[in-house]
Amino acid sequence: MAEMGLVDIRHSVIETEATNEGYERGLIELAERGFDVIVMDADLAGSSGTSEFRKLFPDRFLDVGLCEQDMIGTGAGLALAGKCVFVTTHGMLAAGKAWDIIRSTICYGSLNVNICGADAGLSAGGAGGSRQSLEDVAVMRTLPGMTVVVPADAVEARKATIAAARIPGPVYIRFASARVPIVTTDMTPFTVGQAAVYKQGGDATVLACGVMVYEALKAARSLEDEGLSVRVINCHTIKPLDRAIVNRAAVETGALVTAEEGSTVGGLGGAVSEALAQSVRPTPIRIVGIEDRFGESGRHEQLLAHFGLTARDIAAAVREVHSRKRGAAEIEE
After folding, report:
1. Catalytic: 215?
2. Residues 166 and 23 in one domain
């Protein structure tokens, strides 16, 4: 693939890695660069991606046990003391059990605490619907001053972790524990708040985040055989949303699809729809995600197929919005 130095999904063997492994590499790199990093975990180091950091920097690591709310409060205190704080727990627990403390203590005080939601989306497949965080992006996005980032792969997760250390105020970074395809490289540009075009196209645009970036690229390549030219944008930052790139895609391609491994209510699709409604002409849009329901038990790849989060589903959504665009153009004529 020529654009952005990405892997050519048509010919290359795709490497896979859990995004939380990139998170851990980012933490270690920050500590080695001299950042005054403190990493906190809620008895989940083995699955959340902080165990190696704990071995290398035991004096910078705090395991608070199954006390997520206390962890957030303690992290707030360490931030007030000038530390670069990363607190780690399951996305479901951060966005649910600890949400009130995040809101009242960290966000209200505009504190520099980075909240890292592991096992997010459907990646905690075997744990079932009660442990799968499908709503975390939506609820974190509502908090004043909160930055929300969903990396596409482990390489981007490392970059997001390093970037978060420099961002004033709270940051929520969403990670998956399941192995997902590596679609970016160390040379792929990444800036929080700036979405990136990974494939050019003029007939429709897919804006995706997380593992859905890979699925979007697959869908776009498959649609080339049907004569459809589809733009693919990695919209890794849900908040602040890159409204300029969204509006440009709407004007230049006239049909949008969003794709996310989470609820269709209030996530990336909601953010893009809000932006469109307030700035440009009406644009056909379809939100690919999980429709107002909880998750289920199963392997990650099984669940993606079960909930309609595959390249095939994205391609079908693109055909739909492209057809609606053509219908609207015929009516105007």
Report:
1. no
2. yes
Structural domain harbouring 65: 16-181
Main-chain dihedrals φ then ψ at residue 172, nearest 5 degrees: -115, 125
Q: Based on the structure, what is the number of domains in the chain?
A: 2
| Given the residues 15, 17, 32, 68, the one annotated as active site | 68
Two tokens, residue 26 = 């980012």
Residue 278 and residue 156 in one domain: no
pLDDT, tens digit only, all 333 positions of the chain: 345 656 666 555 578 888 889 999 999 999 999 999 999 988 776 667 788 899 999 999 988 887 788 899 999 999 999 999 999 988 888 888 889 999 999 999 999 999 999 888 888 777 777 777 899 999 999 999 999 999 999 999 999 999 999 999 999 999 888 888 999 999 999 999 999 999 999 999 999 999 999 999 999 999 999 999 999 999 999 999 999 999 999 999 999 999 999 999 999 999 999 999 988 778 999 999 999 988 888 888 999 999 999 999 999 999 999 998 866 654 455
Are 147 and 42 found together in one domain? yes
The encoded tokens of residue 146 equal 């909160």
Which residues have a Cβ under 8 Å from the Cβ of 208 and sit 6 or more positions away?
A: 152, 215, 216, 232, 233, 234, 235, 258, 259, 260, 268, 314
